Every structure is written in C-alpha cells, then in structure tokens.
Amino acid sequence: MKIGILGGTFDPVHLGHLLVAEEVRIRLGLNEILFVPAGQPWLKIDHATIIYGYKKIATEMCINSKLCRQISEVKEKSRTNKASMRKR
C-alpha cells in the first residue's frame, strides 16, 4: 500500500488542500493520502489559530467524501505529550 502524507495548519482546510492531495495521489499512484493537521504551528506561535479539535473536525468533514483520504492525530498527540513533559 502506498500512502502520501499532507501536513499543514489547515486553518482553515480548503479546496486547494483537497485538490493538491488528489493530484499527488493520482500522479504518484498512491492508495491514500494521510492528512496531518498541525496543533499550534511554530511559525504562528504569536497568532491566534483555530484550536486543534475544530481543525480535526473540519478536515474530517472535507476528506470524508473520499475513501482514499485519512486523518492522523499524531500532531495533537505529540503536542499533548510535550505539554505533559513540561509539567514535570
């Protein structure tokens, strides 16, 4: 199985993200694209961004129409782990 990964802030997710993902999937002969929404991107640390939960839901809604698209929570899990490590 060949899987592509598309990460980004998806703040908000839009048609451009979906078009790029689909074009890459077709051209590279991938089975699916894994979308990885960023938690709080380091480049936007001083800017308000949509909270991760809303980004995840919006991204899921946009990609839900295609079986060849999946979503990953790896960025949220890594953010949570970093926060818990800082508290120690």
TrEMBL record:
GO MF term list: adenylyltransferase activity; ATP binding
Domain Cytidyltransferase-like residue range list: 5-45
NCBIfam families for the chain: cyt_tran_rel
Pfam name, any one: CTP_transf_like
Listed name of the protein: Cytidyltransferase-like domain-containing protein
GO process annotations (BP): NAD+ biosynthetic process
Sorted UniProt keywords: ATP-binding, NAD, Nucleotide-binding, Nucleotidyltransferase, Pyridine nucleotide biosynthesis, Transferase
Pathway: Cofactor biosynthesis; NAD(+) biosynthesis
